[in-house]
Write a structure and sequence with these properties.
disordered N terminus; 9 helices; about 15% strand; alpha/beta
Amino acid sequence: MSAWFKRKEKGIQTATEEKKDTPKGLWYKSPTGKIVESEVLAKNFYVSPEDDYHVRIGSKEYFEILFDDNKFKELDEKLSSKDPLKFEDTKKYVDRLKAAEKKTGLHDAVRTAIGKSNGSDIVIACMDFSFIGGSMGSVVGEKIARAIDFAIKKKVPFMMISKSGGARMMEAALSLMQLAKTSVKLAQLAEAGLPYISLCTDPTTGGTTASYAMLGDINISEPGALIGFAGPRIVKDTTGKDLPEGFQSAEFLKEHGFLDFITHRRDLKQKINLYLDLIQNNPVRKHKPMSA
């Protein structure tokens, strides 16, 4: 059957049913309206080149950036959440877990791994916001605790990359217990004389902020990240007052002493390794900036 619409003089003669949509994922539009090819974005550490907007990424991308040649050994990979409270709201918690695992390919909202960064061993725990909003449940707390134990055993530094909406309400008090659990483990890491780097990314909120995210030997962030306990809207509704400009942004927190420094994602690997060399009194290594 021939196409009903043909304009041969213009070189257009494709039947409507034969036309193909542009595949999804080829382009990314930043909040400021800048458009960039996804391939270019990935090569630029998932930062929009025109406006420097740091796109939210997960453990897969952070491990690629921080571990040498993207080589690492994942810890407690199969650990997954249960439903001890038989929680149900608009959907059963067990169904939410299954849906999140199917959608993301993850077993929970944090991955932990050991590998080399700039030639030296480091244990990194990285949260994934795509798994139920990066919420902190029992498995998240347990995997972080085990990762810290592993760092102590191997006598290597520990780094936490936070990205979370806070405690996981479906686990109630069991979730809140992870605040104390992870804090105790970090105290043990300090007693062992091992450094702890906390990287707060967008967003870092709730119980995550109230525990391990703010307990680093250095607390650092990426530009523009939202960091706080309750979100700006909740704070404004509760206090009934207008909030300062940039309230709870990384820049606001640095100005008020909650962060040590803010780093562009391309410089992240270089800066954390420079800090680790200084704090551990290691021989000076070459710290070349990461090129886009």
